[in-house]
Amino acid sequence: MADAVDAYGKKMSLTPALVTVNDSCGSGAGGLWPSGDDTYKMRCSLEVTGYFGAAPDRIGDVLESILAAGDRDKASHPTGGAGVVSSQSDFASKLVAYYKGKGPNPLGPNAQEPTQLLDSEETLEWDTVRSPQRPVLVHEPSPCIQPDPPIRRCTRQPDSKTVADIRHQYGMVFTLRQPGTTYFEVLKDGTTNLNGGR
Q1: Which of 65, 69, 130, 188 has the largest CB neighbor count within 10 A?
Q2: What rounded mean pLDDT belongs to the chain?
Q3: What pLDDT sits at residue 90?
C-alpha cells in the first residue's frame, strides 16, 4: 500500500513526502446479539495515508492529472481495486474549472473553498489556496501510539518529516487516505481468512 502511494505521486503532478501506516488487530465482541463484530474472534486491518507536496499555483493542473489517472485506472480495473479518484462526476469537472480560474466555486458563490474528493476506496484532501477566509489546512498525522506488535504497529516514513515541513518546502499539501483494509481475520469457528476473506 505504501508503494501505491509512491506510484500515485509518480502518475500525477505531486511529490510524495510522507507516508504513515497504522496496523492494528482486535478481538470481536462475542456478545449475545449478532452484529458485525460478533462474526470473528480476531481481525487485523491496515490504514495508509500519503502526504504530497505541490505548488499552489498549479492546483488546477494537479487535480486534472489526478482525475485523469483515476479515469485510466477505473477503465483498466472496471470491477474496482484501483483506488484512485476519477472524474466521473459533474462536481469533479467543475472543481478543475474553478481552480483553473474558468468557473465558479462548485459548492456555491458563498461557500467555503472545496478541499476534498472521495470515492469508496480513498479520500483526497488539500490545503485551501484561493479562499479569502481563514485557510483550511491538512492536519499533522496523529502521533503514533506506543507500538505493541502484533496488536498495534505504527510507522511514519520519514519519521522526522512533518506536514508543516512539506508545506514550507512545496507551498501546499495534498493527502491521500486509504480506509482501513482488513487483511487477516479468525472467524468464530476457527476459520482463518487472509485479506479479510476478499
Answers
A1: 69
A2: 82
A3: 82
CA–CA separation, 134 and 34 (whole Å): 46
> How far apart are alpha carbons 68 and 74 in whole angstroms?
10
CB contact burial 27-61 (16+ within 10 A = b; e otherwise): ebeeeeeeeeeeebeebbbbbbbbbbbbebebbbb
State phi, psi for 13 to the nearest 5 degrees: -85, 55
Per-residue pLDDT, averaged over 103-114, amounts to 91
Closest CA to 13 of 46, 49, 55, 44: 55
Scored b (16 or more CB within 10 A) or e, 149-164 reads eeeebbebeeeebebe
The Cα-based distances of 31 to 38, 42, 121, 175 in angstroms read 6, 14, 30, 37
User: Which is nearest to 52 in space by CA: 166, 152, 142, 148?
Assistant: 166
For position 13, what pLDDT does the model report?
75
pTM: 0.82
